[in-house]
Amino acid sequence: xxxxxxxxxxxxxxxxxxxxxEVHALTSLTGWSNSSGRPGAPSTSLFRxxxxxxxxxxxxxxxxxxxxxxxxxxxxxxxxxxTLGRQAVTWGNAFYFNIEDLFGAFSLADISRLHKPGMxxxxxxxxxxxxxxxxxxxxxxxxxxxxxxxxxxxxAAGGTLTLVGGSIAGDLEAGGGYTFDISGTKLYAQVLYTxxxxxxxxxxxxxxxxxxxxxxxxxxxxxxxxxxGSTDTEAYSALxxxxxxVDGRNLTVGKWNAALDxxxxxxxxxxxxxxxxxxxxDPSMLLRLYGxxxxxxxxxxxxxxxxxxxxxxxxxxxxxxxxxxxxxxxLELVMDF
Length: 337
Hints:
The structure is a single chain. The chain has helices spanning about 235-240, 245, and strands spanning about 1-15, 20-30, 55, 60-75, 80-85, 120-130, 130-140, 150-155, 160-170, 170-180, 185-195, 200-215, 215-225, 255-265, 270-280, 285-295, 300-310, 325-335. A hairpin with a 4-residue loop joins strand 14 (about 255-265) and strand 15. About 30% of the residues are buried. About 5% of the residues lie in helices and about 60% in strands. By secondary structure, the protein is mostly beta strands.
């Protein structure tokens, strides 16, 4: 079983005085070797209300899709910045298990992380001083209409402290994080408390380290606790099809996971990455190998694979977190204008 994806993102940006405009279009073609390897059809994000996506099946075992992933206008003044439209909202300093990113963090299956999927929202940024700012986001329409949250960032005790909270699709969430540096190693930690629909409450935590090893090698390591997840594989199948997982508000169905990322710059234009996501209680692992090649100042080519190791599923019943992940090949050409 295998899945192959080719994607072509095109980014156009324009500045006129205090106004900034951006359009990001994405087309992709995905193929799979048999019915069991077919990926899920692309679904509209929980935080989208504009109909700017389309998809179809031009031939058997093939799916084509196109979308406008960014469509925004931003007014940047000395005392504030206001952005309206489809935009990416990214909070938190963790790389993979970024639980402070309340509006949908990158999926662990995403090989390319250059452009986060956009959401339809209004965003207000207020500078509060040196290295301090408050960001407020509201979602006026769509399935998550009425969602809103704030993110406060400021220096504290030689590091950076962040506080986050809000109401997301009916859930009350509050948390924070702290980032600091010790002898060239970036250390960070995050916690998040979620009261889900006023019925079920749970906590999450992430701790990580990032360091440049010499001139060419870079390391990232993270440990993640997911109070919503389970250590019992019999609970995985129900968690995997739940709204929280499908909408990207929880990234794993297991309770304990870790990520190890080692990259090496082989040439000034090419960097290779190897990443392992490990469920510490299955055990199972998702292995990712990919490379980025710079074609010019405005374009680059990305190629990579994902492959899961662990107990394979029996029909629709999962026996491990990553054992059912098929060999996935991703090819992406990125061009900025």
